Amino acid sequence: MNKLIKQILILIILIIILILPYFVFAQDVEPIEKLKKVGTLGGYAAYTDETTFSYIVGQIIRAFLALLGVIFISLMVYAGYLWMTARGNEDQLTKAKTTIRVAIIGLIIVVSAFGIWEFVSKFVL
User: How far apart are CA 2 and CA 24, in angstroms?
Assistant: First the structure.
């Protein structure tokens, strides 16, 4: 009986979690012009065809971060392959661990640099 009550409670909680988002959209988002106006504050115009310096720099940084993400994933796959095929070879295992450690440190540095860039760019651009 106790197990049945737990299952019913879990089912009720899941139903509430799945149905609750439908009630969040009670207000209609009609004034799209107001949203466009908000986007132009601070020198950023999201709904224009105009290419600004900050937009170009942002696109370059996004492309560079995407490339670094691909390099990070490639290094992790390579290190995982080394680890799986080590077969007791301590040198290969050490190389795999070092590669994983260096890749994670590099990712932390890149994400930190991006965070600093975002913080500084709000005041400079």
Answer: 34
Dihedral of CA 89/90/93/99: which sign? Answer: negative
Domain that holds residue 96: 2-124
Rounded CA-CA distance 53/61 in Å is: 12
The structural domain count of the chain equals 1
Task: Answer yes or no: are the C-beta atoms of 45 and 39 closer than 8 Å.
Answer: yes
pTM confidence score: 0.55
Per-residue pLDDT tens digits for 47-99: 556 677 777 877 888 888 889 889 999 999 999 999 999 998 999 999 999 99
